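Need tokens for this chain, all 157 residues.
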Amino acid sequence: MRKFMYSLLVATVSLGLTAGLARGQGRAAEKDELDSRAITVNKLADQHGGMREAIHDVSVETGVPLEKVQRMQEQHPDAGAAGIMIACTIADNAKGNPESYLSRHVNGKGWGAIARENNVPLEKINERLSKLEHDLGSGASGQLHPTGRDRSRNSRY
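Here are the structure tokens for all 157 residues:
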């Protein structure tokens, strides 16, 4: 009976350790995913010289005033448009100050960990990053008029 109890205890401990390691690897993957995604979006903004447009898109998408987004970009230029978008998305969901989330990230905390601590779904952050990436890639910012038509082309009307 004692051997059985010891075997059961060892099995339980080993399963617990395995689950803990797997969860830790999953969290590291989430951090890597968000950080690499942010790098990709920031490179896209740099390629198109569209940091001004990207900052405007962040403001429109998240509802954070443009002046505040610009101030965040000036204080943390290395965060890029993607970092500011992530901070604003977390703040929108957690009802906090985006500058505090951005500061935590700049000081070494991963985006995945910040999002988890504030119960913000990673899907929501990825949706916003996808929209920003699409806007930057298509050059949509400032290109179309409110009607959605490009007026720079010759029109017969």
